């Protein structure tokens, strides 16, 4: 499994801090938004090497990068690639649908609720409580407290940091992809 990071419109250092906060054991590719529009799925698709077609991908996207990630993930699948999941951080207003798991991570409860109306609410999600600034979610996910919400919405919400929530998802998809081979 490889992780594809689709940042928003901000400095590269913030995305590097985000990745450092997660401590991923998987190879991580950061889409270079300083060279191409953060919201462009075609540029993300060009960024991915054809050699990645045999490796399951997990997209993690922030803000405008969510637009690029959902489009690129769907196109990647149409070209024969495997997408295990998309983790969308503050993709408010972006409709999310695909033949893969989609998780929303939001900087506040209202964003979580209103974004769920546009898809991506069939899988586990997270919202910050207390609410944080939009960019804090990306810059410092290890400091953002909130609640994990299970897909079936029947389980009690679990208090957790955004980084711990995302790391748990990555571990879940690492296990599921290793059992398929």
TrEMBL record:
InterPro entries: AB_hydrolase_fold (IPR029058)
Superkingdom of origin organism: Bacteria
Descriptive protein name: Alpha/beta hydrolase
């Amino acid at each position: 499994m490889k992780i594809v990071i689709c940042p928003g419109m901000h400095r590269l250092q913030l995305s590097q801090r985000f990745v450092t906060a997660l401590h991923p054991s998987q190879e991580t590719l950061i889409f270079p938004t300083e060279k191409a529009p953060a919201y462009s799925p075609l540029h993300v698709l060009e960024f991915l090497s054809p050699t990645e077609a045999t490796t399951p991908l997990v997209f993690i996207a922030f803000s405008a990068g969510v637009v690029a990630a959902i489009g690129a993930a769907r196109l990647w699948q149409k070209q024969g690639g495997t997408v295990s999941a998309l983790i969308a951080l503050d993709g408010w207003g972006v409709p999310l649908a695909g033949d893969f798991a989609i998780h929303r991570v939001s900087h506040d409860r209202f964003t979580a609720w209103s974004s769920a109306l546009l898809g991506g609410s069939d899988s586990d999600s997270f919202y910050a409580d207390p609410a944080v600034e939009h960019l804090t979610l990306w810059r410092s996910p290890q400091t953002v407290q909130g609640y994990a919400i299970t897909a079936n919405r029947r389980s009690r919400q679990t208090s957790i940091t955004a980084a711990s929530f995302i790391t748990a998802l990555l571990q879940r998809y690492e296990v599921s992809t290793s059992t398929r081979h």
